[in-house]
């Protein structure tokens, strides 16, 4: 198959380009339907004339329907989009890229979706879908899932298929964080994920960045202590990987703390800890939830981050546990390989 693909690329390289272009058009319509030609052209950053030509081809093939309110994808079109994902993955050599990253980062598994979320916001939906599929594949009887907050995790819950059969799984927020945007709070994401999976959930009503006295007081509350105790039994953690500078700004750290993070080259944040590129802790906040020791003992760890701007942060977090899965995009994956190829990160 790979030899045949290489032959196609040499003889008719435009075939791959055309296939990817039409796949992106179908995918964009799928996520934004109904959508007009002009809006589609703007989203894809290509001319309306090109869009019109391609739309006519896809319509003639029965993959699209065009109505007054805009274009929509047909059932056959949805099937084609799903089937093309794997082909696009092969055409771009992402299987090889995954294996290369597994070796360089020294982790168990890497899953890469095509594209770069820094350039195409729809890639985040693909990341969410890939993660939700992987979660379902790894579920066990009586699974206890911990999930963090953030935009990426919210997309994972959004893309999770709805299950109608009652399950015995339990979903928990992996840490506190009241005061954030409601849609991206870990509590809200945990509840939505549990509902999609037809399971149960518990909430953790505590703020982030606590003082020692506040932590002690909250941990004496029966309902909070109960959730924290259950956290010790989490067997699957799904978490986002943040950039240290962005997360420090978002949490309104003092100038002294920001300076400390900068001087010590902190590049990543996860579950309240800030790390340098070697995975060494530079700073940690007082928060109720998953600790670093908990993290290292959890059976199934799924880290999710996309965009080449997250490359250093991803490298840092992958230093923490070899037996983990990373789900990322093509942009981040290529940037990571470029970085780790230098002596500084060896």
UniProtKB/TrEMBL annotation:
Superkingdom of origin organism: Bacteria
One Pfam family matching this protein: CggR_N
MF terms (GO), sorted A to Z: carbohydrate binding; DNA binding
InterPro entries assigned to the protein according to its UniProt record, in alphabetical order: CggR_N, NagB/RpiA_transferase-like, SorC_transcr_regulators, Sugar-bd_dom_put, WH-like_DNA-bd_sf, WH_DNA-bd_sf
Domain Sugar-binding intervals: 90-338
Family indicated by similarity: Belongs to the SorC transcriptional regulatory family.
Protein name: Transcriptional regulator
């Amino acid at each position: 198959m790979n030899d045949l693909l290489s032959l196609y690329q040499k003889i008719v390289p435009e075939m791959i380009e055309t296939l990817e272009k039409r796949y992106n058009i179908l995918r964009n319509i799928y996520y934004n339907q109904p959508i007009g030609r002009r809006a589609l052209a703007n989203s894809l950053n290509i001319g309306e004339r090109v869009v019109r030509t391609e739309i006519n081809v896809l319509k003639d093939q029965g993959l699209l329907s065009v109505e007054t309110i805009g274009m929509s994808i047909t059932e056959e079109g949805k099937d084609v989009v799903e089937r093309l994902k794997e082909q696009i993955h092969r055409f771009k050599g992402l299987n090889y890229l995954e294996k290369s990253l597994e070796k360089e980062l020294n982790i168990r598994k890497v899953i890469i979706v095509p594209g770069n979320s820094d350039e195409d916001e729809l890639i985040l939906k693909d990341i969410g879908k890939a993660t939700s599929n992987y979660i379902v594949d790894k579920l066990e009887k009586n699974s206890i899932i911990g999930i963090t907050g953030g935009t990426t995790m919210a997309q994972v819950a959004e893309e999770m298929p709805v299950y109608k059969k009652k399950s015995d799984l339990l979903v928990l927020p992996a840490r506190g964080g009241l005061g954030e945007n409601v849609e991206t709070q870990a509590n809200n994401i945990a509840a939505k994920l549990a509902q999609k999976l037809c399971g149960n959930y518990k909430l953790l009503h505590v703020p982030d960045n606590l003082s020692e006295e506040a932590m002690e007081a909250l941990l004496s509350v029966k309902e909070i202590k109960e959730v924290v105790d259950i956290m010790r039994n989490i067997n699957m953690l799904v978490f986002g990987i943040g950039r240290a500078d962005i997360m420090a700004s978002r949490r309104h750290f003092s100038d002294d703390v920001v300076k400390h993070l900068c001087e010590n080259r902190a590049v990543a944040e996860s579950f309240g800890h800030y790390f340098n590129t070697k995975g060494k802790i530079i700073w940690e906040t007082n928060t109720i939830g998953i600790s670093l020791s908990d993290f290292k003992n959890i059976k199934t760890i799924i880290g999710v981050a996309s965009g080449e701007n997250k490359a250093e942060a991803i490298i840092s977090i992958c230093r923490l546990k070899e037996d983990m899965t990373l789900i990322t995009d093509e942009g981040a994956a290529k940037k990571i390989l470029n970085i780790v190829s230098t002596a500084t990160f060896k």
